[in-house]
Sequence to fold (349 residues):
Amino acid sequence: MRDNAGSMDYEGFYASILTMLDTLDDGIILISANRLVEYMNRVAEEIFSPMRKGDKDATFIEIVRDYECDSLLRKCIETGQQQAGLIKIRLNNKLLQVNVVPDARKQHYIVVIKDITQRQHLEDIRRDMIANISHEFRTPITSIKLLSETLISQGNIDQPLEQDLLKKICLEADKLAQMTNDLTELAAVQSGRAQLNWVEIDISRMAAVVIERLAAQARMGGVKVNVEVETGLPKITGDSARIESVLMNLVTNAIKFTASGGSILLRVTKDVNDILVSVSDTGIGISAEDLLRIFERFYKVDKSRSGVGSGLGLAISKHIILAHEGRIWAKSEEGRGSTFYFTLPLDKR
Ligand code: ADP
Fold:
């Protein structure tokens, strides 16, 4: 606080302090020795309900409405020592790091609140992701270890058996490579920073290519695949390899989750402003509860089929379609089949 020309008077200084407090990322509450709230900054008001204007008699517990938070203040008043705690506020589900500090004269108490809800949420996501990756990698790694140990321990192994074990090792290594590729692709597309390679796409041709590539797999599964493509569809613009991977994923899933004797229909039509692609199957279907989660990474309805896929395909597909400003969704009836849809805007670029 200066007092010569251009000086800041006490009120000016006080107003500046209040402005500064309101620009902080932490919540600040000033409490009197009899636990009345004397001041809350903007963040504190956002975390708890705003203090009513002119309400001079609100106690700390009335504002925070949390027993644990209040007991930190009581302890600080009792001991004159700084108190800290991690507090989950039930009312708004926020996770707060709370520090209560007495002022120099122990006449006021300052509560400093850090809202770590989002940080904790990101931390949970990271932990789940690591747990899921470890789980998915464990099975092929265990298989490779067992197979190679068999090769090592059997001294004079006959050649056909040796070939068989080596082929199995190769297959498991392929699974690991596929998973690593999927994880890299997911990281790229979900960050929104993936470099999309925009080209003109003939979606009718792409549909035909995908069906041709998966024909053998469908035949082996005893599933009939039909294609219906509206004639004269306009070309669209997009990342051809990535859109093709979405189609591949949807049709592969349809084949995978449809029993022998079932059928699949791939339809491509023009909506008002979009190309609409749908992949219907007469397979096992998905319950309403699972349908809400299948686009999440690693989500698999039947965990025991973990060898079948990584559970990343639909998450990758979702982010690819979103990057093209399209929509992707699914409808299903358990035991009767599913239809996956996606749109791609016609006037993109
Ligand atoms: P993956 O197929 O590798 O497990 P996806 O992300 O492609 O992973 O699919 C996630 C889950 O959604 C699958 O494990 C399966 O439970 C379910 N699902 C996907 N497509 C279908 C379908 N056409 N019919 C039934 N369930 C499906």
In short: The two ends are 58 Å apart (CA to CA). The chain has a mean pLDDT of 90. The longest strand covers residues 94-102.
